Amino acid sequence: MPPAMLCADRTLVPDPDVFFPISTIDPRVVAQTEQAKQLCATCPARPACLQTALTGGRYTSYGVWGGEDEDQRRRLLRRRARSTA
Ligand code: SF4
Question: Which residues partner with 68 through β-bridges?
Answer without folding.
Answer: 65
